Write a sequence for this structure.
C-alpha cells in the first residue's frame, strides 16, 4: 500500500512496534538497515492473483532475511505496507510502517494473518484514496471499514493481535487482500478499474525512476 503525500510518517514517541508502544524508534526501521531491495511485482503478474501459502517454519534465517528485504523495499517505494507476493514470494506475510488517523506510527510484520472486521450492521465504511505499490502511479477511492483487527504470528511464531483504526485499518485490510490474491483494483467498478490502469500506464515510469533515486540515496 502506498502512502499519500500528506500522510508523512510521524517520528517521535507515538510509535507502536508489533502492536506495543515504544518510547522512540528510528525513521528507517532496523530491519530495513539489514535488508536488500527486491523488485516489486506489478498487477497482471500471476503471483499477485492467487492465494499465498501459509508459513509453516518460523525462526529461520530465510524468513528473517525476507522480512528485512521487504522493509527496505517498502521504504524505497514509499510504502505504508508490503505483502510478500509483492516481492514475488507466495507466503502469507506482510510488513507495515503506517500512520493512523491519530498520528501514531505503527511498525511491524504479521505472518498468517486472519482479519476480524466489525459486523455488517455495526461497521462504518469510509471512502478514501488508496494506492498500491504493485499498481504504480494510480490512486482511487476505495470503501473500507475504519476499524480492523488482524491476528497472526511474528517471525518466531509468537502470537500477535494488531488493531488498527482509520488509515492503519485500511492498510491491514489492503495487505490481507494481497495475501488472498486480490489487489484493490478488484474492489473497483469496471470504469474505475480502467481509470486506475490508465493512471498506471501514464505514471509508472516516473514512479520507477523515483524509486531508483531513493534506493541510491539509501546506498542501494
Amino acid at each position: 500500500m502506498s502512502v499519500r503525500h500528506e500522510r508523512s510518517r510521524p517520528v517521535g514517541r507515538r510509535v507502536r512496534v508489533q502492536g506495543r508502544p515504544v518510547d522512540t524508534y528510528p525513521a528507517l526501521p532496523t530491519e530495513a538497515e539489514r535488508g536488500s531491495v527486491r523488485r516489486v511485482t506489478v498487477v497482471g503478474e500471476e503471483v499477485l492473483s492467487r492465494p499465498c501459502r501459509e508459513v509453516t517454519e518460523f525462526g529461520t534465517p530465510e524468513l528473517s532475511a525476507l522480512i528485512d528485504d521487504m522493509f527496505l523495499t517498502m521504504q524505497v517505494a514509499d510504502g505504508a505496507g508490503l505483502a510478500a507476493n509483492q516481492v514475488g514470494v507466495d507466503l502469507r506475510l506482510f510488513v507495515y510502517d503506517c500512520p493512523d488517523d491519530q498520528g501514531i506510527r505503527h511498525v511491524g510484520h504479521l505472518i498468517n494473518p486472519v482479519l476480524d472486521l466489525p459486523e455488517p450492521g455495526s461497521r462504518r465504511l469510509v471512502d478514501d484514496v488508496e494506492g498500491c505499490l504493485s499498481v504504480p502511479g494510480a490512486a482511487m477511492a476505495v470503501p473500507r471499514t475504519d476499524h480492523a483487527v488482524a491476528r497472526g504470528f511474528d517471525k518466531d511464531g509468537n502470537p500477535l493481535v494488531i488493531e488498527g483504526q482509520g488509515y492503519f485499518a485500511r492498510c491491514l485490510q489492503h495487505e490481507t487482500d494481497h495475501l488472498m490474491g486480490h489487489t484493490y483494483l478488484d474492489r473497483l467498478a469496471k470504469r474505475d478499474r480502467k481509470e486506475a490502469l490508465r493512471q498506471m500506464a501514464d505514471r509508472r515510469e516516473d514512479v520507477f525512476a523515483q524509486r531508483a533515486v531513493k534506493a541510491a540515496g539509501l546506498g542501494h
